[in-house]
Amino acid sequence: MSRYRATLEYFGKPFVGWQRQKNGFSVQQALEEAIKNFCGQDVVTYVAGRTDAGVHALGQVCHFEIEKKETTKTIRNAINFHLKPNPIIVLNVVEVDETFHARFSAKERHYRYKFINRATPSALYSDLSWWVPQALDIDLMIEASKCLIGKHDFSTFRAAGCQAKTPVKTLNSITFWREGDEVIMDTRAKSFLYHQVRNMAGTLKLVGEKKWTIENFSNAFNARTRVRGGITAPACGLYFMKVDY
Q1: Closest CA to 221 of 160, 161, 167
Q2: Residues 32, 125: contact at Cβ < 8 Å?
Q3: Per residue in 61-115, pLDDT tens?
Q4: Which among 11, 19, 175, 186 could disulfide-bond with 87, CB atoms 3.0 to 4.6 Å apart, if both were Cys?
């Protein structure tokens, strides 16, 4: 058996998320079925970060083991052939040793959140971003987010279904910038709580809209309870960007 690491890109809207579920079709199911159609073997894939329904990926990573011996280029192309017409693409495949694990070997995960910030919604990007018609003040969002950097209790941004043993996480960075009508929020950490990035985005949006002050945001964060935070930003604006190993 050989172990392979695959980097994936996918459009999240048609799926119930990464993980196999009884209530719908998942990215994991589509990928495992494509691999089986290629090699004739039942395969289990292990992923760096399980994305929710509607969340996209530009650099998701998983690993799997197969008996069939082919070049990594052949494996990539064969899986992509069998993935059609699902909006999932294997960008590359690399053979790795048995010590590599897509989840447990990860040193840092990188998520991005996109807002469309203009008076009218987008005809093209409605499933790829969160439309916010009121002008966002990025400088205020940057200033408010500074208190999030480092090791903290992130309970204010922790969803009820979170299975993490502790709400304490270390946020390595959070940055904002504007590209045309888009406002982009980038975050990096070794790991995140369930819905943490979307809850941070939904709460920082209030600061950007000037509905909350920076002090309001800081007080909500320090309250360490989800009820003090803002709404959960919709899944369509969230992207799993990359993993560092």
Answers
A1: 167
A2: no
A3: 999 999 999 999 999 999 999 999 999 999 999 999 999 999 999 999 999 999 9
A4: 11
203 in Cβ contact with 166 (< 8 Å) = no
CA dihedral 193, 196, 113, 217 (to 10 degrees): -150
Q: Which of the following is catalytic: 52, 127, 137, 181?
A: 52
What Rg value do the Cα atoms of the chain yield, rounded?
A: 19
Q: Which residues, including other chains, have CB under 8 Å from residue 117's CB and lie 6 or more apart? A: 132, 133, 135, 136, 178, 181, 182, 183
pTM: predicted TM-score of the whole model, two decimal places: 0.95
Domains and CATH numbers, the chain: 2-96 (3.30.70.580), 108-244 (3.30.70.660)
Q: Are 168 and 156 in contact (CB under 8 A)?
A: no
From 95, 88, 59, 60, select the one nearest 74 (Cα to Cα).
95
Strands 108-116 and 130-131: parallel
CA nearest to 12, candidates 54, 47, 59 = 54
